């Protein structure tokens, strides 16, 4: 799989001291042959060209399909306070080293940043009016019950909202309407323990660097079987089909790493990785925006356009006003290219398709996010330009990392939840050690150990 986990694994295999392109053959097979699946047609399709249309980090046409799933549509937040704790410090450190070695600041937007929780009161967009002014005056949580809360992606990190102190936001958080919309602010992370990357550019760079060191990358190659010797004790080959002409190929191999994100249990049914769809948007601000990742809690007052219900399929929610206050939790990450990324809640409405190329985007769910963030920030609202509406599948349940005890050479690295970008390099490094040295050296696998599957 050509997501962050597969690409980091390929990269770190080529950086292992015992690796030699003369004796080792590494092939990365990616099912999709386009990274445009899960994006509306009017979205930008190469973020590398945003800052400089002639940039050298432009998409390698031969790599279209790499980072086409969650690894290209995630936020890209990195944090020492992420989980699991056995993997996080190694991976956070590796992100820093990779950025230094390969000019990650320029190439994939690596930078240290702040992370904060903000409790906000949405302004009702023009053309609509609140029909219950008394409720609008209350702050969100006081006015709603649990059924009217739409949870954010990294919800496990949030403090109880009642504990949030109204401390006043930092002065440079000037792209948030701190006068009218901000109710409470609390810092969560600082540049000492928090950073970010552009996940699509990072993943593509890992693929490119791996290829330059000898990895063969084949896109439009969907693995359909992992073949073992007769008694099942050793991997022998993988079968993949060319998604364009349906031609089947058998690739002999000593090791097979299944890094297929949410698709993993289709190849390895005993590995319990599950999938939830999540929508996100990218908005360009008229001026650069300061380096904050905001975990919001926004109270939408009566009269605000109704968010699409979790189980609704393509509901035209836009402009239908809500009657009672509702709380939503989009996460907003300012990026160094002058854009902000924002993601909404997960849904289970559309099952995981065959490949990332067929991921369905529900435009109304993207428009929900756009309306909600526009109600607390003019830069991301009336003055912003929407560059992308997109959806992808969050792999859940793990991370599961390691070699099967039953089948030598069969490895898995999947189910990385909402921290797969943070934990990609650490996972790749550990896999390179397991494959070449027989065991993980740089960190304990701990609860991630997948040898039982
Ligand atoms: C909205 C959202 C925001 C997020 N924000 C963050 C964040 O801020 N920080 C963070 O650390 N993490 C974040 N994440 C999590 C992160 O995106 C994922 O954990 C990570 O991208 C998973 O990477 P992966 O390589 O395992 O899977 P994927 O990116 O899904 O890649 C798997 C690849 O395998 C390919 N594949 C599947 N089946 C086959 C097959 N049979 N043959 C060949 N190829 C196959 C797929 O086409 C795909 O390209 C976010 C996730 C979402 C959904």
From TrEMBL:
Positions of region (Disordered): 33-63
GO (cellular component) term, any one: late endosome
SUPFAM superfamilies named in the record: FAD/NAD(P)-binding domain
Superkingdom as given in the UniProt entry: Eukaryota
InterPro entries registered for this protein in UniProt: FAD-dep_OxRdtase, FAD/NAD-bd_sf
Occurrences of domain FAD dependent oxidoreductase (ranges): 63-433
A GO BP entry: retrograde transport, endosome to Golgi
This protein's name: FAD dependent oxidoreductase
Organism name: Coniella lustricola
Lineage of origin: Eukaryota, Fungi, Dikarya, Ascomycota, Pezizomycotina
């Amino acid at each position: 799989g050509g997501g962050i986990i597969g690409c980091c694994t390929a990269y770190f295999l080529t950086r292992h001291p015992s690796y030699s392109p003369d004796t080792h053959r590494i092939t990365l097979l990616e099912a999709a042959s386009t990274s445009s699946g899960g994006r509306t047609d009017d979205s930008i399709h190469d973020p590398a060209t945003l800052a400089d249309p002639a940039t050298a980090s432009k998409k390698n046409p031969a790599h279209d399909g790499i980072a086409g799933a969650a690894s290209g549509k995630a936020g890209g937040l990195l944090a020492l306070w992420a989980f699991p704790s056995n993997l996080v410090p190694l991976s956070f450190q590796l992100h820093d080293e990779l950025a230094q070695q390969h000019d990650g600041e320029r190439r994939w937007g690596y930078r240290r940043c702040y992370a904060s929780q903000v409790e906000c009161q949405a302004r009702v967009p023009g053309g609509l009016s609140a029909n219950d002014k008394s409720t609008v005056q209350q702050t969100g949580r006081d006015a709603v019950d649990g059924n009217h809360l739409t949870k954010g992606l990294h919800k496990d990190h949030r403090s109880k909202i009642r504990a949030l102190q109204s401390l006043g936001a930092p002065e440079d958080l000037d792209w948030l309407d701190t006068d009218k919309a901000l109710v409470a602010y609390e810092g969560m992370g600082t540049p000492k323990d928090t950073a970010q990357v552009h996940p699509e550019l990072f993943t593509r760079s890992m693929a490119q660097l791996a290829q330059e060191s000898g990895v063969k990358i084949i896109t439009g190659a969907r693995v359909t079987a992992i073949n073992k010797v007769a008694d099942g004790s050793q991997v022998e080959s993988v079968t993949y089909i060319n998604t364009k002409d349906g031609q089947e190929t058998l690739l002999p191999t000593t090791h097979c790493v299944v890094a297929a994100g949410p698709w993993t249990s289709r190849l390895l049914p005993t590995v319990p990785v599950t999938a939830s769809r999540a929508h996100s948007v990218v908005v360009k601000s008229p001026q650069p925006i300061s380096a904050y990742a905001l975990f919001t809690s926004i109270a939408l007052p009566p009269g605000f356009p109704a968010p699409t219900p979790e189980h609704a399929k393509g509901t035209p929610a836009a402009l239908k006003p809500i009657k009672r206050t509702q709380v939503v939790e989009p996460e907003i990450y300012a990026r160094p290219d002058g854009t902000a990324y924002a993601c909404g809640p997960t849904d289970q409405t559309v099952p995981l398709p065959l490949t990332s190329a067929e991921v369905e985007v529900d435009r109304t769910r993207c428009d929900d996010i756009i309306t909600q963030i526009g109600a607390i920030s003019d830069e991301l609202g009336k003055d912003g330009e929407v560059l992308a509406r997109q959806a992808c599948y969050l792999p859940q349940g793990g991370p599961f990392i390691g070699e099967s005890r039953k089948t030598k050479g069969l490895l898995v690295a999947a189910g990385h939840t909402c921290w797969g970008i943070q934990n990609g390099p650490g996972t790749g490094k550990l896999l390179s050690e397991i494959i070449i040295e027989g065991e993980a050296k740089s960190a304990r696998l701990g609860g991630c150990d997948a040898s039982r599957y």
